[in-house]
Design a protein that fits this description.
The structure is a single chain. The protein is mainly alpha-helical and 116 residues long. It has one domain (15-115). It has 1 helix and 2 strands. The chain has one helix at residues 27-115; strands spanning 17-19, 22-24. Strands 1-2 form a two-stranded antiparallel sheet. The longest helix is centred in the middle third of the chain and has 89 residues, at 27-115. It is rod-shaped, with a radius of gyration of 43 Å.
């Protein structure tokens, strides 16, 4: 990242002197340091926001993956139910057909017994 300092904030960094525990420097250097600190804070805020956005993206992707897995499981279960339903409806059709034939035979037999 390039730090741009305007000419009015130009600072000769070699003029900074340390006297005891205190640093002494010119007004231009004070303004330049203030700008660097502000830019550093802004850069940190941007980094934090980008990290948060990345975390939210990762969360969205993981939730999307979970939904896909859940959808897949549900579709497999529904497919199994449809297969069972088709199997049992076919068996039910044959059972009804057989019971119709049996009813017809028994009805004929009952009428035959009643006519005698």
């Amino acid at each position: 990242m390039a730090l741009l300092v305007s000419p009015s904030l130009a600072c000769d960094w070699s003029t900074i002197k340390k006297v005891g525990n205190i640093y002494q420097y010119s007004k231009e250097c004070n303004l330049a340091v203030g700008k660097l600190v502000r830019d550093s804070k802004l850069s940190q805020e941007r980094t934090d926001k980008l990290n948060k956005a990345l975390d939210l993206k990762d969360l969205a992707l993981s939730k999307s993956d979970e939904r896909i897995v859940l959808w897949r499981k549900t579709s497999y279960k529904l497919e199994d139910r449809l297969i069972k339903h088709d199997k049992y409806s076919s068996a039910k059709g044959w059972l009804l057909f057989g019971s119709g034939i049996l009813t017809t035979i028994l009805t004929g037999w009952a009428i035959g017994q009643a006519v005698r």
